[in-house]
Design goal:
Protein-Tyrosine Phosphatase, Chain A; UDP-N-acetylmuramoyl-L-alanine:D-glutamate ligase; six-stranded mixed β-sheet; alpha/beta
């Protein structure tokens, strides 16, 4: 499809308006005066926020909702039998993917497209916060709310548009970036691509979208990203990471105590002078994300000291190690990780924040196809926790696959917790097991996110009783090696 102009679209209707990606595009369009309507299967604060901006919203999906629309926007999650989509096709309306709509909304702005198997949302958010703090007022579209921004998307007055470029269905190939960021490349979304080779080929295509004067920013530490760079032929490339051959090299990282999370101070070589950055979000993966954002800032002409100052106010994106509350010294966080590499990163960040106390994870696998492909890798990642409780698979767009259950993962995990078909009971078990200083982490791309608040409530009403809430983790030298006596309550309940 040739690139559409925003003026070509007329009145735009979004099917599934409440979703993070769809609502972001809608916000950007409303900011440019486009008449927007949309529906979702259930009401939400996000829908009401868009209504307050002027969108016409519908709770429930039916054919009549598309009346008066000229263009209908869908995502990959919308099934062909959806009544609004079926009506739109019957009426001959223009039907376009969310990414095509976003490309139209970008207009002639200089696009920074952030791609990668992991870290897209956080890196896109970091770039946006950095540029805002530097006074550039960029437009942006991010797959999650950002505390420092207040929203997940906006149309700014500046010349730059920062976009999270989703590779899951190949839709990141609909953008025309001036700067392309590749945080990492791994096999994922094999339900769409089929093979690992096809995943890498799509990133090769993504790089070829750059104009001759464009800039490719890529992680030197990631073998997949490095492979894409080696084949890219891009005229301008800046790499970042811990690697000695990175153009922007991370050195001298060390934690500084600061409230409930660690502040990470690190230096970036490869500049005329060394620059120190302070970061409020934990984990080596976030240091790399910050280095990527810093490199983009330099590529757009932002002074290094100003870029560092901008990153220092970044406090995280929704569902990216997001603090949900603390009760009796037990802290609860929520993370969107739904790939083994992401799960490892989230648990390593939790280890840092736990500072020697135990880490309890409540994990929900996302998609039957991903569970089947990565069961062993998920199990290996969960070994980094002290207790690992796994809920039923969140199906999302997929139909159940015979024989594919969460027990494909838990059968390989040697940690207390195990398979938990009863989520409410799992919450009670985890709260009973958690001690002051411990971390509870809810993880997954499905509705597991709702249990963060539930865990906080359960902790608040739970009685501290001897034997179930020990004062400290055993001193074994390895927090994951909890004693049998402390693990017994969860082992008995979940096997």
């Amino acid at each position: 499809m040739s690139k559409l102009k925003l003026s070509d679209l007329g009145r735009v209707h979004f099917i599934g308006l409440g979703g993070a990606g769809m609502s972001a595009v809608a916000r950007v369009m409303i900011g440019q005066g486009v008449e927007v309507s949309g529906s979702d299967s259930r009401d939400s604060a996000g829908l009401r926020a868009l209504e307050a901006l002027g969108a016409r919203v519908y709770v429930g999906q039916e054919a009549a909702n598309v009346q008066g629309a000229d263009t209908v926007v869908v995502s990959t999650a919308i099934r062909p039998e959806n009544p609004e989509l079926a009506a739109a096709r019957e009426m001959g309306l223009r039907v376009i993917h969310r990414s095509v709509a976003l490309a139209a909304a970008m207009g002639t702005q200089d696009v920074v497209a952030v791609a990668g198997t992991h870290g897209k949302t956080t890196t896109t958010a970091m770039v946006t916060v950095l540029l805002r703090e530097a006074g550039l007022d960029p437009s942006f579209a991010i797959g999650g709310d950002v505390a420092a921004l207040g929203v997940n998307a906006a149309f700014g007055s500046g010349d730059v548009f920062v976009a999270e470029a989703d590779e899951s269905d190949g839709s990141f190939l609909n953008y025309l970036p001036r700067i392309s960021v590749i945080t990492n490349v791994e096999a994922d979304h094999l339900d769409h691509y089929g093979t690992e080779e096809a995943v890498f080929a799509s990133f090769d295509q993504f790089v070829r979208l750059l104009p001759p004067e464009g800039l490719l920013v890529a992680c030197a530490d990631d073998p997949g990203a490095a492979d894409v760079v080696s084949r890219s032929g891009a005229a301008r490339v800046r790499t970042y990471g811990y690697s000695e051959n990175a153009d922007i090299r991370i050195t001298d990282t060390r934690p500084l105590a600061s409230g409930s999370v660690s502040v990470l101070r690190f230096s970036l070589d490869g500049l005329e002078c060394e620059q120190e950055l302070r970061l409020l979000v934990p984990g080596a993966h976030n240091i790399r994300n910050a280095a990527a954002a810093f490199t983009v800032g330099l590529g757009l002409g932002v002074d290094p000291a100003l870029a560092a100052a901008g990153l220092s106010v970044f406090s995280g994106a929704a569902r990216r190690f997001e603090a949900k509350g603390a009760v009796r010294g037990v802290r609860v966080f929520d993370d969107y990780a739904h790939h083994p590499t992401e799960l490892v990163a989230a648990l390593e960040a939790a280890r840092t924040v736990a500072a020697g106390h135990r880490v309890h994870v409540l994990f929900q696998p996302h998609l039957f196809s991903r569970t089947l492909a990565f069961a062993e890798e998920f199990a290996s990642a969960l070994e980094r926790a002290d207790t690992a409780t796994v809920l039923d698979i969140y199906a999302a767009r997929e139909d159940p696959v015979p024989g594919v259950t969460s027990e494909l993962i838990t059968s390989r995990v040697n940690r207390p917790g195990g398979y938990a078909p009863d989520a409410a009971q799992a919450v009670r078990d985890i709260c009973r097991c958690a001690a002051p200083g411990d971390i509870i982490l809810t993880v997954g791309a499905g509705d597991v996110t709702q249990f963060g608040a539930v865990l906080v409530q359960e902790l608040a009403k739970a009685e501290v009783s001897a034997g179930t809430l020990p004062d400290t983790a055993p001193d074994t030298g390895n927090p994951a090696d909890s004693s049998t006596a402390q693990q017994a309550p969860m082992r008995e309940l979940h096997g």
